[in-house]
Design brief:
Shape: elongated
Strand content: over 45%
Structural class: mainly beta
Mean pLDDT: 80
Number of helices: 0
Radius of gyration: 20 Å
Distance between the termini: 57 Å
């Protein structure tokens, strides 16, 4: 038997795999309940760079692209990010006219529902 630690969608599982199973496929059984993986730490934004309006992730997923940059003027409804969730691409748009104060994520990052993706003024 071999023990492995596997991370799936941010959940960590300890798995034991039997070698030489008679069906030709290895049987795996979870040994422990899933543990939450530690979230990656982001660099803190410079003081005064946070805006008063937060743009939050509506659901968990993966950021496919970042369409805005800090300091960019945007209009209400303009696409800021593309978020992939359940194999669908979702556009995250500006909630109001303003200027992007900070971008808190990058393309390829996995985010949880409610995570602050950006702030605006």
């Amino acid at each position: 038997m071999k023990n492995y630690t596997i991370t799936v969608n941010g959940n960590v599982y300890d798995v034991t795999v039997e070698e030489g199973a008679s069906t030709g496929a290895a049987a795996s059984t979870p040994v422990a309940a899933p543990k939450k993986a530690a979230p990656a730490q982001k660099a803190a934004a410079p003081a005064g760079a946070q805006g008063s309006v937060k743009v939050n992730a509506p659901m968990q997923g993966k950021i496919l692209s970042v369409k805005a940059t800090a300091g960019q003027a945007v209009k209400k409804g303009e696409v800021l990010f593309v978020l992939e969730a359940m194999k669908m691409e979702n556009e995250i748009v500006a909630p109001q006219d303003g200027t992007v104060a900070s971008i808190n994520i990058a393309a390829g990052d996995k985010v949880e529902s409610g995570a602050v993706l950006a702030t605006m003024n």
